[in-house]
Specification:
This protein has 217 residues and is of the alpha/beta class. It has one domain: P-loop containing nucleotide triphosphate hydrolases (Rossmann fold). It has 9 helices and 7 strands; from the N terminus they run βαβαααβαβαββααβα. It has helices spanning 13-24, 31-40, 44-54, 61-72, 90-102, 117-125, 165-179, 182-189, 202-216; strands spanning 2-6, 27-30, 81-84, 109-114, 127-129, 136-138, 193-197. Helix 2 packs across helix 3, helix 4 (61-72) runs parallel beside helix 5 and helix 6 crosses helix 7 (165-179).
Length: 217
């Protein structure tokens, strides 16, 4: 099964994708994670992507498609694949369909996670992470016991450049302009489509998510 998870940044689709991938023994594919790893490792792709990511802009389509094609080649053809936040444009969606077809796959289901902008802004602009141990907090919903310090290891918490409030607003604008059209793209393509309210508890959202997957078979 190939599953596409759509929704604005900060809606929680990554959390749901990881949980379902663990339950199914599938492959969670997040181009954001792949790009950050490439940037951290100092690859040519990472260097090219950094200026777009830090500004909250979309990385060019061809660059992303090349990365996804290379990554898919290392995944067992029979494994479930969950695309988290990819594709992000209709051009990417068309390119992904071609990549999947060449590997004997197709998009089996699309799930759209939705939440109000106010909730998303708080989730992203309030996010703080620990560079030492990877723990993640939120100043609005799940703050650390000591402001600016990690509960787990005592490290200093940081905010990702693309989580700054102004950049979050820009990311939402980019989503509405360039990614939201994917909803009609996949609906017109006839792919089974589900909408899930994501401004609820993680467990409630996941229950609806799993229910949608069971319907998918």
């Amino acid at each position: 099964m190939v599953l596409i998870l759509l929704g604005p940044p900060g809606v929680g689709k990554g959390t749901q994708a990881v949980r379902l991938a663990d339950d199914l023994g599938g492959a969670h594919v997040s181009t954001g994670d792949l790009l950050r790893a490439a940037r951290r490792d100092g690859t040519e792709l990472g260097a090219r992507a950094q200026k777009y990511m830090d500004a909250g802009e979309l990385v060019p389509d061809q660059l992303i498609l090349d990365l996804v094609r290379e990554h898919l080649a290392g995944i067992d053809p029979g494994a479930h694949v969950l695309f988290d936040g990819f594709p992000r444009t209709t051009t990417q969606a068309t390119g992904l369909s071609e990549v999947l077809e060449r590997s004997g796959r197709r998009v089996d289901r699309v799930v759209l996670f939705e939440a109000p902008d106010e909730t998303i802004v708080k989730r992203l602009s309030g996010r703080r992470s620990c560079p030492e141990c990877g723990a993640v907090y939120n100043t609005f919903f799940s703050p650390s016991r000591v402001e600016g310090k990690c509960d787990r290891c005592g490290g200093s918490l940081v905010q990702r450049p693309d989580d700054a409030p102004a950049t979050v607003q820009r990311r939402l604008e980019v989503y509405r302009d360039q990614t939201a059209p994917l909803v009609s793209f996949y609906e017109q393509a006839g792919a089974p489509f589900e909408r899930i309210r994501a401004d609820r508890s993680v467990d409630d959202v996941y229950a609806d998510f799993r229910s949608a997957m069971e319907v998918a078979g």
